[in-house]
Specification:
5 helices, globular
Length: 87
């Protein structure tokens, strides 16, 4: 069911682009502190999301979900090479 809904119907829907979905998913996972964030940060890098785009997502996380959640996500982003100059 999860594969069919999440990877099938949700990600294949044309209402949002893959980039938009990646930004949303990254923000949600960062806010919730989920381990799947690593996978989605790698995907964000692979599909070409910029450091500036990821920074903005994580700044939203800081404001709306809390600084500790955002700090953790910033650290993971830097560790994975998705944002070399983020801090």
């Amino acid at each position: 069911m999860i594969t069919r809904l999440a990877w099938g119907e949700l990600w294949s829907n044309d209402d949002l682009t893959r980039r938009e979905r990646s930004l949303i998913t990254t923000g949600i996972l960062a806010a919730l502190g989920r381990e799947e964030l690593v996978l989605h940060l790698k995907t964000a890098k692979r599909i070409g999301l910029s450091e500036a785009e990821l920074r903005q997502v994580l700044m939203h996380v800081a404001i709306y979900a809390g600084v500790p959640a955002a700090n953790h996500a910033f650290a993971l982003t830097k560790e994975l090479g998705c944002g070399e100059e983020m801090s």
